[in-house]
Design goal:
heterodimer; A: 421 residues; Peroxisomal Thiolase, Chain A, domain 1; 2 domains; 10-stranded mixed beta sheet; two-stranded antiparallel ribbon; 31% helix; B: 124 residues; mainly alpha; Non-ribosomal Peptide Synthetase Peptidyl Carrier Protein, Chain A; 60% helix; globular
Chain lengths: 421, 124
């Protein structure tokens, strides 16, 4: 039997819950994680809603002022090199390891690797650089680089958990953690590693989110109950969020030997570029269409066999339209009609974290036997004709689940998950 | 020597810089600044060290023997020592070179070294 990557542990720090039971309830009952916010203390900003991460606070760049839930252990030694999303990531990974029944000591020895994804911390990097500008380079936090650049997650977590297997960070904007998970699957399928930890995370700060308003990508809808409504005719942009999700991915044989619970099998993945624009998706979703086809081909699965698609749809007018057309090309035009929803209607768009977070949601859906509904969808955009959006979560156990992600530059990544035999 | 912009930065951020130290350490810093009290200086140095220690100290540093080693006994690493140096430089308006720090291995070494430095560079 060739190695088969399976998911054996999940950890969540998200706008819809900081533990698996809460996230599960939010997905089943379509409870969103949005709150009204005032970024930069500026009431004039049109962006007024975010997917807040409850129980955490990062009021200043100084880690001594930071707050996290008491039941997570965050060492001082580690804290000095962490960004806010590093704290989220550490908490999510602690959960995932406990969920998988793994002692952190078992991660050393070279059989376990770590792939991470984040955009770094604009919040800390801005502070660090401002300090350097003010002193003309004469002062700077020695941990400023380590805590703020893209890669900060793998720097910190690999050293902390003494990971001597494959360690890498992935940067493809909103497809980043989907790339991390896809390549983690390959590490196992190629026999290079027996276990991979995959961690996606993003700060939930004004610096990370409001930057997207310059692209006119954010929703200006002030109502937390409707600001994020993927595929709806009235959608006007995405709602930002942050947090972290960790997945423990193991070779099925190792999971079986350990007696570990298997949430889902990872049976295929694929990627394709749009080759079109630096920031906007291909108008017909060409890259995403190809990424879905490559994923199905990788898994040798027909489009008709897919029960549910967790769409990337972020609630932007152009992006959702492209994805709808890509879904129609792959599924509807072939007579296939999987259920489709975007859980970003509940969480908001978590940028680099999105792909791993939604893969974890797909794994939960498979393990718990349900399909998350398309929250906040009242008037589907006519371009979505033929797509099957359940308005409530369904008590249907999906067999094959497709997870879509797309990032800047037209980077599209998909995973296919299967219910364990 | 620090540039003018650096001096402005150092002067304007000093109050913020010590707000995380215990109240007695903040008071000791004031005593040192106004009266030149060397005992106050030692208390501030211990508070800075405790603040940057990678692991929370189990015994107050002021109660540890002067021969206690920063790396081997207190668990400091080079990055944490660099953080202490930068902090001390900014707070006391002194300059510490890497070559000088190589010879600072114990609590007594550090206290003696900073005392000598601030005696040369009067506190701002």
């Amino acid at each position: 039997m060739p190695p088969l990557p399976v998911i054996t542990g999940l950890g969540f720090i998200t706008s819809i819950g900081n533990d698996r039971p809460t996230v599960l309830r939010s997905l089943r009952e379509l409870r969103h994680g949005f709150e009204s916010v005032e970024f930069f203390g500026n009431p004039d900003l049109p962006v007024k809603v975010a997917g807040t991460v409850k129980g955490f606070a990062f009021p200043t760049p100084n880690w001594r002022d930071w707050v996290w839930p008491d039941h997570f252990a965050v060492d001082r030694e580690l804290l000095r090199g962490l960004a806010p999303h590093g704290v989220y990531a550490l908490c999510a990974l602690q959960q995932a390891l406990a969920d998988a029944g793994l002692d952190p000591a078992a991660l050393a020895g070279g059989q376990t690797g770590l792939f991470c994804a984040s955009a770094g911390s604009p919040f800390l990097l801005g502070h660090f650089l401002n300090q350097m500008y003010a002193t003309r380079g004469e002062r700077g936090n020695p941990m400023g680089i380590i805590s703020s650049i893209a890669g900060t997650l793998n720097f910190n977590l690999a050293a902390h958990y003494k990971i001597s297997g494959a360690v890498c960070g992935f940067v493809s904007a909103c497809a980043s953690s989907s790339h991390a998970l896809g390549y983690a699957m390959d590490e196992i399928r190629l026999g290079r590693q027996q276990r991979m930890l995959v961690v996606g995370a993003e700060d939930m700060t004004a610096e990370s989110i409001v930057s997207f308003s310059t692209l006119r990508a954010l929703s200006n809808n002030p109502d937390p109950a409707t600001a994020s409504r993927p595929f709806d005719r009235r959608r006007d942009g995405f709602v930002g969020t942050g947090g972290a999700v960790a997945l423990v991915v193991e070779d099925a044989a190792l999971a079986c030997r350990r007696g570990a619970r298997v949430y889902a099998e990872l049976v295929g993945w694929g990627q394709a570029g749009d080759g079109y624009s630096v920031a906007t998706s291909h108008p017909e979703g060409a890259g995403l269409r190809e990424a879905m086809r490559r994923t199905l081909a990788d898994a040798r699965v027909d489009a008709h066999e897919v029960s549910y698609v967790n769409a990337h749809a972020t609630s932007t007018p152009a992006g959702d339209r492209s994805e709808a057309l890509a879904l129609q090309a792959v599924f509807t035009s072939n007579g296939a009609k999987p259920r489709v929803s975007s859980t970003k209607a509940l969480t908001g768009h978590a940028l680099s974290l999105a792909g791993a977070m939604e893969a974890a949601f797909c794994a939960l859906a498979i393990a718990e036997g349900f399909i998350p509904g398309a929250a906040h969808l009242e008037e589907p955009d006519p371009v979505c004709a033929g797509l099957d959006f359940p308005r409530v979560s369904l008590c249907e156990a999906p067999h094959f689940v497709l997870n879509n992600s797309s990032g800047f530059g037209g980077s599209n990544v998909c995973h296919l998950l299967r219910r364990p035999a | 020597m620090p540039s003018n912009s650096a001096k402005t930065y150092l002067a304007t951020s000093q109050a913020d810089r010590i707000k995380h130290l215990p109240a007695e350490a903040r008071a000791a810093f004031q005593r040192f600044q106004t009266l030149g009290d060397p005992a106050g200086l030692d208390m501030v140095i211990c508070a800075i060290l405790a603040d940057f220690m990678p692991r929370r100290p189990t015994v107050p540093l002021a109660e540890r023997p002067g021969s206690t080693r920063l790396i081997d006994d207190l668990g400091f690493d080079s990055l944490a020592i660099t953080e202490v140096i930068f902090f001390a430089e900014d707070l006391f308006g002194i300059t510490i070179t890497n070559e000088e720090m190589v010879h600072v291995r114990t609590l007594d070494d550090l206290r003696g070294f900073i005392r000598r430095k601030v005696a040369v560079h009067a506190p701002r």
